[in-house]
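Translate sequence into structure tokens.
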Amino acid sequence: MENKLLSIEEVFDHSDNNLVYKTKPSVLLSALLIIAGILFIVFNGQITKSPESMLPTLFIIIGILFLAWGIIYTFFSKTKYKLTQGQQNISFSEILFDIKERERLLRIIDEGNLQELEKLKPAVIDTLKLRIASTPDGSFCYTQAVTYVPYEFVIINEAHQHTQEEANILLNMQKKQNSAKK
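Result follows.
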């Protein structure tokens, strides 16, 4: 089963209007961590000459930890999306719904009547979720419904852009659901 729908991230990546751009953290931090790790390892024997001292061993351990942290940070740092105007970060969140509410959720999103979302039955497990990509103030917001089929999440509708009022409704619902989990 091939899914032709684009995810929110793919919509951002393929947009022609340059409204959103992708950023990765600077490699400067990872380079500094790797250099610090190497320096700890190289200079471990020069700190003390006492054979019963634990300091050289401690320096080697710290050096290895800094090296590992720098390497992991280099390859596994998250990509973030930012709005071109205002340089606001776009954060991703989700609202979980009962799987039986799938058709109603899709209809509500397509019609744009987001006040009806509060009438849908929430869920604890993530078999059906509404992904939200928005700025903190809600001035830019996209949503997309995804469902879990064995071993993966599948996109079930197109990414929809929402107004600030609709975004505020979504963000308030998401905050309520998160506070109910705690």
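Note: Residues 144 and 159 are 5 Å apart (CA to CA).
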